[in-house]
Amino acid sequence: MTGMTGIAGRASDPDRMLPSRAPVMHIDPDGRPTAADQAGLPAHEELLRGLAGMVAARRFNEQASALVRQGRLAVYPSSFGQEACQVAAAQVLTDDDWLFPTYRDTAAAVARGVDPVDVLGLLKGDWHSGYDPYEHHVAPLTTPLATQLPHAVGVAHAARLRGENTVVLAMCGDGGTSEGDFHEALNFAAVFRAPVVFFVQNNQYAISVPLARQSAAPSLAHKGVGYGIPGEHVDGNDLAALLDVLSAAVERARAGAGPQLVEGLTYRMQAHTNADDATRYRADDEVAAWAAKDPLLRLEAYLRAEGVLDDARAASFTEAAEQVARRTRDGLNQDVEPDPEDLFRFVYAQPTPQLVEQLDLVRDELSRDALSRDEQSRDEQSRDEQSRDEQSRVETR
């Protein structure tokens, strides 16, 4: 059963809104198609585009992690191992659609077209967001769990009221489904039929808490039925299946069928962040088992077997990824001189009286500091001149 057939059929029948019994998979971990007729598989060009994006995403993850060790980033939540989910989320959207990412979805933002240096601005500490959300229709990276989901629903609902053809894809992790914002967002979206796709990347852990300690549901995709939202779960390391299922969900939402819920089963190969020690709560053999399901190796094996990927094209993907890493490295290695007035400049389009008052106080304090530094500099210069004069008189004697 393909994602398109499955989710569409269930959505038309309220008694069949539950996800398929097994997660949708089109390419197995060894790179072989799961159906003899290759039903549901996207076109080769779409898969090649996705592989290029995943190669770039992995290199971006590696570079960002290196920048943490070099002191250029304060923290980095890696999506190493989740590249298929990251790239598919960006690839199924049109330019007019919106992506609402979490703090771990930096690679998805880059795949959507946001400058990688700007994406990491928040994690470096330069900016609250780091980029213009309207340029590529990518909302700011969200650190609090699930708080972006009601915002995503609001954007989708507003688009529907305006008669726009916009779909919003809202990402969250398995830990986010335990937050109240998740349930409130699903309920509002369902009641008002907002064109939003909730995409849960189930990477098995909410920091150190395993999924079994978060939910007793058969799957996170089952949570949609309680709100009247059709759900589907998919192998989150199979880019082909992700593109199929997510594309179906996006187009259903665009066609007026209301919100959709998709769960991607994947794995966080590295620690939660550089401040985490994942060896304290998961075993090496567990990690090794998921490493054997690597999304990049799986898709590459399939495309090579199909005869559409050769060494030359693979090398071009690697070189393009290295350019992303180089851009990231060069940009993050530049020091930024902060402007204190930016704290007030970008809060509201029309500053409130309180902000104006606070800005004036900061300007006054900075002016006093500048005067104090000038006076100190003049005093030091005067002392130096006196010292030279005294030394000159001593030498004259």
TrEMBL record:
PANTHER family: 2-OXOISOVALERATE DEHYDROGENASE SUBUNIT ALPHA, MITOCHONDRIAL. Its cofactor is thiamine diphosphate. It comes from Promicromonospora vindobonensis. This is Pyruvate dehydrogenase (Acetyl-transferring) E1 component subunit alpha. Residues 1-37, 367-397 are annotated as: Disordered. InterPro entries: Alpha-ketoacid_DH_E1_comp (IPR050771), DH_E1 (IPR001017), PdhA/BkdA (IPR017596), THDP-binding (IPR029061). The gene is pdhA. Residues 54-320 form the Dehydrogenase E1 component domain. The keyword Oxidoreductase applies. CDD domains: TPP_E1_PDC_ADC_BCADC. Keywords: Oxidoreductase, Pyruvate, Thiamine pyrophosphate.
